[in-house]
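Handout, page 2. Input:
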Amino acid sequence: MQQINADIEYLKRTTDTQTTTCETLRVVSATLDNRLTAVEKPRDQGATSSAASLSAAEIQPGPVPGETEDIQPAQPDDSAQGRTQSPAWSKVVREGRRQKQMVSVFATKFDLNVDADTLSDYLKEKLGREVKCRKIETVQSRFSSFCVTAECNDVAEMYDPQLWTAGSFVRRFYEPRRPRGAVGGPSGPEGTPRPQETGLLPGGDTGVPVVSAGMAGMTASCPAVSDQD
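Output:
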């Protein structure tokens, strides 16, 4: 009789152990199934995939008493991946999409009757963009001089011979220097700064005018150019 009782107790313990093991395996199987579903789902499902994940989480069985709760890692938000992102700087440089810059040049040897508005309208028509011209007042000069400013992708656009009338002279524009007398150096007459010696940007030849042979016959339709040297 004692042997029978011992066998019955042994069978009870074995049955309890098998039941616990089966329940644990069921939970592990359900967890793996949910994780595989989350990994294999396409990323373009958006809100539909999020709702499916929520439904799977709701039906997932809870942890077995006495077992450690299995926490799933947070899934990335698919909606955030669909947002438009700025291209990398290396890609911007490679594709040539650079920020435009304001370029200022000094243009001279125009007729004295040419004003800033006339030259601005002419250059605006040639460039196809807004151009600002400011006439530089000079004393005892035989020509009209202007500071011309425009937005360009490349500085070389402002030195294109086809842009200017034949005989005009264009170089880089320099802001007036501070009188050197104020800092102990020499200055020009009556304390005015000395002009900076410059030449044309293309080639660097000082005093070489911009001459466009193809525009010689268009002088009448664009700002007049003085015949004086």
